[in-house]
Amino acid sequence: MRRLLLTALAIGSVTATAACSSGTQSGEPVVVTEIVTATAGEQQPLQDSGPAAPPEPAAPAAADPSDYAAEAGYFFSSASGKWKCGIRRADAGCHGPLPAGAPLSYGQRPTGAVVGSGAAELVKFSSPEFMLQSGRTAPVLPYGQTLTINGFSCSIDQTAGVTCRNDGTGRGFTVSDIAYDLF
């Protein structure tokens, strides 16, 4: 009973100390990560773990693939209209204006990027492979949403551009009119 009473007093002391004192010079709240129990005559120091960690960013929202289904794949556009992209059964790719410094693809200026089961690459498309063939404009994939289907995921970031990856291999690309990254 005496040990239970001392434990309750120790917990109450921790709560009161945390509530009444910031414990840091910056005035940020202290997160107590250790509850100490003591028996009569023992003293245990409390440990300050520092400022509280920031919350984890929210996971991107999932886009509904049925909103993008057309012809032989799932097609979308960027909000700017610069990028036309698609996910097909075995690959994902985008058509759009790559930066002037992008390397040539078989001696020609690339017009987009593609990732399949191998490495992602910049390519010169001879036909609009990742655009709707019907002449319609594909719906816009909103910033912060990810379209995932057929083992590929694509998303658009307002600053970085369009990213598509093979979910199985982790390989993919990020493209914009000012930068590109093949990974």
UniProtKB/TrEMBL annotation:
<feature type="region of interest" description="Disordered">
    <location>
        <begin position="43"/>
        <end position="64"/>
    </location>
</feature>
<feature type="signal peptide">
    <location>
        <begin position="1"/>
        <end position="18"/>
    </location>
</feature>
<keyword id="KW-0732">Signal</keyword>
<protein>
    <recommendedName>
        <fullName>Lipoprotein</fullName>
    </recommendedName>
</protein>
